[in-house]
Write a structure and sequence with these properties.
The protein is built from 4 helices and 7 strands, in the order βααβββαβαββ.
Length: about 170
């Protein structure tokens, strides 16, 4: 399996690798999601990686892709990377889907399945990630893919205001 996602159209959508010129679109997409929760993007700290896509993910041995409508409009984004260079342990970053594509399109499913398949193809035995406690709809979505939350919560201060995240994991069966 190559590092490149399958670009075949699925129900009017396709995945492609993020390009450097996608940065502004991704910033707008993610800022829009944050604003749904009364927050905003923090490009000075936590979200500064968006200025360096896809290089920052590729340098860590991972990848970041976007889901697009057949006309090229970006509908969502997701990244999959090994944790500290360990091929057996991966994490997810940047799973964001624009509101109009949630629940009624395959965008979220395409992105999540790509990320799981990407990690598995590189030898991952486990996927671990943290998700903002406010993203309750996303948490239900993760559970549909078999992810478990331990209930562990961490509080971070790398944005405009402190925020909390839940821990999720999935053990991959070979």
């Amino acid at each position: 399996m190559s590092n490149q996602p399958d670009t075949n159209s699925t129900m009017g959508y396709f995945l492609r690798p993020v390009r450097r010129d996608d940065s502004a679109t991704l910033i707008a997409l993610i800022d829009g999601v944050y604003r749904e929760y009364g927050d905003r993007i923090c490009l000075e700290n936590y979200d500064s990686d968006l200025f360096e896509v896809p290089d920052v993910y590729e340098a860590k041995g991972g990848a970041i892709v976007v889901a697009c409508e057949d006309n090229g409009t970006i509908a969502g984004v997701h990244a999959s990377i090994p944790i500290d260079g360990q091929q057996e342990l991966f994490t997810f970053r940047r799973l964001y889907v624009a509101p109009q594509y949630r629940g009624t399109t395959p965008v979220g499913r395409l992105l999540m399945q790509w990320a799981i398949d990407y990690a598995r193809a590189r030898g991952a035995k486990r996927i671990e990630f943290w998700s903002d406690t406010r993203f309750t709809r996303a948490h239900s979505f993760f559970k549909k893919f078999g992810f478990t939350s331990t209930g562990e919560v961490r509080t971070l201060t790398d944005s405009w205001e402190p925020y909390s995240e839940f821990f999720f994991y999935l053990n991959l069966n070979r």
